[in-house]
Amino acid sequence: MNPELNVLVVCGGISSERAISLRSGRAVLEALREYGYHNARLFDLREDNMGEILSAHPDAVFLTLHGKGGEDGRIQGFLDLAGIPYTGSGVESSAVCMNKILTKQVLLSMGLPTARFTIIRKERMVKEGVATIARELIDSIGLPMVLKAPCEGSSIGVSIVKEERELSRAVVDIFSYDDRLLAEEFLSGTEITLPILGNEELMVLPDIEITSEREFYDYTAKYTQGMCHHIIPARISAENRERARTIGREAYLALRCRGLARIDFIVDERRGPMVIEINTLPGMTEMSLFPDSARAMGISFPELCHHILSLCME
């Protein structure tokens, strides 16, 4: 890799995760410059300045966007049309992995384990009423259950419902984010994540167990110092570790991920590793999981960013 490359670190964006993306972007820029990419620059993407990416004439774009508009294939399609190499997965993979419903449907089609789920459209709630929807969810999924807005990240639009009296309000809240609701059975077990690097040849990094000072690993726990803990390697059996690594590789390839992705699991007490979701542009902040896992393998943050950049130029 030529350290004289004109690298544009694109961050910010228009999603609910803008603040986290800016933190990721600044961290990556500092790491690239430390490695020797002195021509690396930060680009704060907003609603009205996408065309300025073209006028910057980058040799490559390092994407640190999160959420809608950045992680869902839209910016990837723009860069493809412009012929600019970029880090991470392409349009197809980004769009599918950003949508938790589509991800689960692909996982099921490949025979990969994921929590039992159902999908409700907002138009049904408007026609039939929230009470009817709540009763259907209890009958089909049972309590406790997890409700999710399918296209949000950083645990935004996620609710764990333990009691029937909480359900109607949670349903209405999820529909404030999206016109579809994903309801999953609650899995009891250890939450882990598996970072993976590569295109065709994959490097599976050490798994991480995630513990939270809150009810679950939500937005506050993820981005507030001291509110979560990363345990490397995860405190799981050797059998479950190997199973998670096998499932992670299969999911990465099935969903046509490239560059990097992070596979999130619950290691269920009865069924072992169950895939929760796949993050194609995982966080790169000072508290993020991917850099922590790389460090545990002896890969510094500047080395990690260089490697990710190299993968996009293959």
Keyword list:
single chain; alpha+beta; Rossmann fold; D-amino Acid Aminotransferase, Chain A, domain 1; Dna Ligase, domain 1
Write the layout of secondary structure elements.
Blueprint: E1 7-12, H1 18-35, E2 41-45, H2 51-55, E3 60-63, H3 74-82, H4 91-98, H5 100-109, E4 117-121, H6 122-128, H7 130-140, E5 145-148, E6 158-161, H8 164-174, E7 180-185, E8 189-198, E9 202-204, E10 208-212, H9 219-223, E11 228-231, H10 238-254, E12 259-268, E13 272-279, H11 289-296, H12 301-312
Q: What is the CATH level 1 assignment of the largest domain? A: Alpha Beta
In round numbers, the mean pLDDT is 92
The total domain count is 3
Strand content: 15-25%
The name of the CATH topology of the largest domain is: D-amino Acid Aminotransferase, Chain A, domain 1
Question: Helix and strand succession?
Answer: EHEHEHHHEHHEEHEEEEHEHEEHH
**Classification by helices and strands:** alpha+beta
CATH superfamily of the largest domain: ATP-grasp fold, B domain
Number of strands: 13
* CATH-defined architecture of the largest domain: 2-Layer Sandwich
Number of helices: 12
Helix content: 25-40%
Specify Rg, calculated over alpha carbons: 19 Å
Largest sheet: 6 strands, antiparallel
Residue stretches low in confidence (pLDDT < 50, at least 5 long) are none
N-end to C-end Cα span: 10 Å
